Amino acid sequence: MDRVEQLLAIQLGKVNRSVDGRDAWVFITNIAYDSSNRPEYVGIADQGAANSDAAWRIEKLTYDANGSVTQSRFSQPDQVWNDRESVSYS
After folding, report:
1. What pLDDT was estimated at residue 69?
2. Is residue 90 part of a domain?
3. Residue-range definition of the domain harbouring residue 42
4. Which of 19, 42, 69, 71 could cross-link 59 (Cys pair, CB 3.0–4.6 Å)?
5. What's the confidence (pLDDT) of residue 2?
6. Strand partners, 61
7. Residue 64 φ/ψ, nearest 5 degrees
8. Kind and range of the H or E element at 60?
9. Spatial distance between the Cα atoms of 86 and 89, rounded to a whole number of angstroms
10. What is the pLDDT of residue 4?
Protein backbone atom coordinates (compact mmCIF):
# COMPACT_ATOMS: atom_id res chain seq x y z
CA MET A 1 0.00 0.00 0.00
CA ASP A 2 1.48 3.34 -1.03
CA ARG A 3 1.30 6.61 0.88
CA VAL A 4 -1.78 7.93 -0.98
CA GLU A 5 -3.72 4.77 -0.13
CA GLN A 6 -2.62 4.96 3.52
CA LEU A 7 -3.73 8.58 3.89
CA LEU A 8 -7.09 7.89 2.27
CA ALA A 9 -7.60 4.87 4.52
CA ILE A 10 -7.01 6.98 7.60
CA GLN A 11 -9.33 9.75 6.34
CA LEU A 12 -12.10 7.28 5.54
CA GLY A 13 -11.70 5.28 8.75
CA LYS A 14 -11.33 2.03 6.85
CA VAL A 15 -8.71 0.42 9.09
CA ASN A 16 -9.70 -2.45 11.36
CA ARG A 17 -7.48 -4.06 13.95
CA SER A 18 -7.19 -7.79 13.63
CA VAL A 19 -6.85 -10.15 16.58
CA ASP A 20 -3.05 -10.15 16.37
CA GLY A 21 -2.90 -6.33 16.32
CA ARG A 22 -1.96 -5.86 12.67
CA ASP A 23 -3.99 -3.55 10.44
CA ALA A 24 -6.49 -5.27 8.17
CA TRP A 25 -7.34 -3.11 5.17
CA VAL A 26 -11.01 -3.54 4.31
CA PHE A 27 -11.23 -1.56 1.08
CA ILE A 28 -10.05 -1.59 -2.51
CA THR A 29 -8.27 1.21 -4.34
CA ASN A 30 -8.38 2.21 -8.01
CA ILE A 31 -5.92 4.65 -9.57
CA ALA A 32 -6.35 6.28 -12.99
CA TYR A 33 -3.30 7.96 -14.52
CA ASP A 34 -3.06 11.04 -16.74
CA SER A 35 -1.16 11.24 -20.03
CA SER A 36 2.08 11.94 -18.09
CA ASN A 37 1.59 8.73 -16.05
CA ARG A 38 0.76 10.63 -12.84
CA PRO A 39 -2.13 9.57 -10.61
CA GLU A 40 -5.08 11.77 -11.58
CA TYR A 41 -7.94 9.96 -9.84
CA VAL A 42 -7.71 7.78 -6.73
CA GLY A 43 -10.80 5.91 -5.61
CA ILE A 44 -11.54 3.87 -2.51
CA ALA A 45 -14.49 1.56 -1.91
CA ASP A 46 -15.38 -1.39 0.28
CA GLN A 47 -14.04 -4.73 -0.91
CA GLY A 48 -16.31 -6.32 -3.46
CA ALA A 49 -17.48 -3.04 -5.03
CA ALA A 50 -17.57 -3.01 -8.82
CA ASN A 51 -16.38 -0.01 -10.83
CA SER A 52 -20.01 0.51 -11.85
CA ASP A 53 -21.32 0.54 -8.24
CA ALA A 54 -22.21 3.82 -6.50
CA ALA A 55 -19.77 2.95 -3.73
CA TRP A 56 -16.67 5.03 -4.36
CA ARG A 57 -15.05 8.05 -2.71
CA ILE A 58 -12.83 9.60 -5.38
CA GLU A 59 -9.94 12.05 -5.11
CA LYS A 60 -8.88 14.19 -8.09
CA LEU A 61 -5.29 15.45 -8.18
CA THR A 62 -4.18 18.53 -10.14
CA TYR A 63 -0.54 19.22 -11.07
CA ASP A 64 1.52 22.29 -11.97
CA ALA A 65 3.98 22.49 -14.90
CA ASN A 66 6.73 20.99 -12.72
CA GLY A 67 4.64 17.93 -11.89
CA SER A 68 3.94 18.90 -8.28
CA VAL A 69 0.46 18.35 -6.87
CA THR A 70 -1.25 21.73 -6.56
CA GLN A 71 -4.71 20.59 -5.55
CA SER A 72 -6.39 17.54 -4.07
CA ARG A 73 -10.20 17.52 -4.20
CA PHE A 74 -12.66 14.85 -3.13
CA SER A 75 -16.03 13.75 -4.43
CA GLN A 76 -19.04 13.13 -2.26
CA PRO A 77 -19.30 9.51 -1.09
CA ASP A 78 -21.12 6.85 -3.09
CA GLN A 79 -19.92 7.79 -6.56
CA VAL A 80 -19.44 5.48 -9.57
CA TRP A 81 -15.75 4.95 -10.43
CA ASN A 82 -16.56 4.69 -14.14
CA ASP A 83 -18.07 8.23 -13.98
CA ARG A 84 -15.03 9.82 -12.27
CA GLU A 85 -14.40 12.35 -15.07
CA SER A 86 -17.91 13.83 -14.75
CA VAL A 87 -18.22 13.75 -10.94
CA SER A 88 -18.17 17.02 -8.95
CA TYR A 89 -15.16 17.57 -6.70
CA SER A 90 -14.76 20.06 -3.87
Report:
1. 94
2. no
3. 3-82
4. 42
5. 57
6. 72
7. -90, 180
8. strand 54-63
9. 9
10. 62
Strand partners of residue 71: 62
DSSP state of 81: G
Alpha helix segments (H runs only) across the chain:
3-12
Number of domains in the chain: 1
d(CA 51, CA 43) in angstroms, rounded, equals 10
**Cα-to-chain-centroid distance, residue 27:** 10
Residue 7 phi, psi dihedral angles, 5° rounding: -65, -40
48: which residues sit within 8 A by CB, 6+ positions away? 28
Residue 50 inside a domain? The answer is yes
Residue 36: strand, helix, or coil: coil
Q: What is the pLDDT along the chain (90 residues), one digit of tens a residue?
A: 555 666 556 555 555 544 455 555 678 899 999 999 999 999 999 888 999 999 999 999 999 999 999 999 999 999 999 999 999 999
Give me the sign of the Cα torsion angle 59, 77, 54, 22: positive
